[in-house]
Amino acid sequence: MSKHESAWLHVSGTARFTEDLTLDHPHALHAYPVQSPHAHAKVLGIDTTLAEKSEGVVRVLTAKDVPGENDTGISRRDEPLFPETIEYAGQAVVWVLAKTREQARIGAQLVKVEYEAMKPVLDLKDAIGQGSFHSAPIRMARGSIDQALENAEHLKEGELDIGGQEHFYLETHASLAKLDESGTMYVHSSTQHPSETQDIVARVLGVPRSEVIVQCTRMGGGFGGKESQSNPYASVAALGAKLTGKPVLVRLSRAQDTTLSGKRHPFHARYQIGFTSEGMLQALKLDLFADGGYSLDLSEPIVSRALFHSDNAYFIPHMQVTGRVCKTHKTSQTAFRGFGGPQGMVVIEHLMDLIARTLNLPPHEIRQKNFYTPEQTTHYGQQVTDAWKMNRVWEEALLRSHYLKRAEEIRAFNAQSKNPQNKNRVRGLAITPVKFGISFTMTAYNQAGALVLIYQDGSVQVNHGGTEMGQGLHTKIQAIAAKTLGLPTEKIKVMPTRTDKVPNTSATAASTGSDLNGGAVRNACETLKDRLLEVVAKFHKLEKAHLTLTDGAFWHGLEKLWTFEEAVRSAYYQRVQLFSDGFYATPNIHWDREKAAGRPFAYFAYGACVAEIELDPVTGMHQVLQVDIVHDVGESLTPSIDRGQIEGGFIQGMGWLTLEDLRWNDTGMLATRNASTYKLPTLMDAPDVFNVHLLENVPQEGVVFGSKAVGEPPLMLAIAVREALKDAIHTLTGHFADVPSPITPEVSFFASSLKKTHVLG
Ligand code: MTE
Ligand code: MOS
């Protein structure tokens, strides 16, 4: 069992999150936003006089206080920190600093803002109709699409709406900033991307990056929501600290967090799909429109990833997929576990079901026979050399779940659904695959650094560029360092992530945290190991190559030469350097943006999921009876953590696809701001039977210790639940379940009754 490196702190309630740092800074000021009630408006005037007189209020931060740039946009300058034009309901206009949070709240209520309201674009389809886009279309294509569609044996076309998702990390956005005596700004931030936070804070303050240090000890969840969107809060805290000389804390309430920060992109898809009478894919033409919200943020790479995954695991000879980032007056939608991949995959899985229902063939057969073979390439030109793994994962999932036998049993059960003891319920079963590309599609981001320090007593500190958000990265890093240095994990201390230990880091994202930072840490540890081996070999007059370092000692065969500590002490007195940096850059990846072709991914992660549900058409409610997952994590560094990622990712995906329903009111204000109105999955929604199996004997070549990324791919396993629900609806109506996502109980209810089909959508 691999124990999470902070397990004890977590369960004893002593792990510190950013807000808890105020325990050490009792005089920190609290910042509170004044949020716009309008989705689109001009700010005509701001009157802060009353607020400034209010008890405890120290200062109101406005645009004129910004010494550097009044903008925190990461892709372009489109996110003013203190805006003149309001672009979404809830946008922060100014921030009030006070001695207590309550005083800051009252102060914020006393700020008078005069607005001139303008007409907002709130609906994705309105944005498409009006041509409200952030950027040019992104396209990937191969073959001759129009001809192939024309000649297709069967042709289907239609549309699909896919809802967004609130991250609902347990810890909302938080930053604490303070100055040191030399004017260096220290920012503790709940951020997945400390280097970018450093960059944006420096930009807002108008200072070089060397004047700003960003630290992230841990996050209470990020899920992509803190990849780019922590920067404004860090900037407000830093600006406040600079102007007042006091530490400043920004910590959002849940309702502030959900109304200020971006979510998973809602998508609208338009498709034309051609296939043979045997169910072989011939051609796919797909237009994906993403609701990017008010600013560009990460929307372009997110839409790209949706296009990269619009094939999922299937070879489609002729393909043309086009993506557009639409501009609406909403929060700026952002990274969320899977980064657009899930939306792309929901569409193709929907279509595999459509093909099966059209041809009246079993969906699982249609899916499997369209899998890539190892000679084939994707629509962007990457060969799927280990496509055999997809088949292996799939076959194991079928076998372990007794898929065929249960399909029969379910058929028998459903035939009896009118039986009083079945209470009209019907069951649905589905299996869906996951093939997910690992690497940042922006090739330059695929680099990482580390700094490993061995002290004279043989104890070890590891610094690396990745951040801990509950995914267990630090635990994996600890395991990698321990394995390389031949030490027990307790001897390795993983330090908080800081920009002054490892510079120019990438976001901990794209599931690459352990591949990249683990690679860098291993590299640093190998350097140190080599130096120590040299010292030991020299002293014992032996060949370095004949020595091993394991179990805390240096060995020559079975003979223990020195303990690790003895070797370290000796190295010190011989003036051998006992610390090292390490670096890793993913080899053999490239991407030509213009041609939309290349080898953007180091490898693919594979998984398959079987889900069985029971639907009550009277209420639309369902229960997930059983889930069987087979997932490929290579040689797991920490099996219990990987299992946790698979279970957690699956449940999070299931919530997105079946429960979580973002709603905005007529003015564009988010209506589902809290857990009272936004339905999150709980333990009660977890499958009654939940089997997770890690594929065995599949070390991933070229990745640290044969391991494999696991953070995002399992989320998409939950598409099996959506497809199982559609299977039940199909059983009830005899028609292809042409339902949007999420399939909430309302959607199931209307779709299950023939008369009411298509009412929602
Ligand atoms: N797991 C937990 N518990 N909390 C999180 O915030 N984020 C996910 C995933 N698993 C997340 C998580 C996302 S979006 C990503 S990209 C990866 O973890 C990032 O970490 P890794 O690259 O180290 O896997
Ligand atoms: Mo994860 S969406 O790449 O932070």
TrEMBL record:
Domain spans labelled Aldehyde oxidase/xanthine dehydrogenase a/b hammerhead: 12-119
SMART domains assigned to the protein according to its UniProt record, in alphabetical order: Ald_Xan_dh_C
InterPro entries: Ald_Oxase/Xan_DH_a/b, Ald_Oxase/Xan_DH_a/b_sf, Ald_Oxase/xanthine_DH-like, AldOxase/xan_DH_MoCoBD1, AldOxase/xan_DH_MoCoBD2, AldOxase/xan_DH_Mopterin-bd_sf, Xanthine_DH_Mopterin-bd_su
Superkingdom field: Bacteria
PANTHER family: XANTHINE DEHYDROGENASE
Protein name: Dehydrogenase
Species per Swiss-Prot/TrEMBL record: Deinococcus roseus
Organism lineage: Bacteria, Thermotogati, Deinococcota, Deinococci, Deinococcales
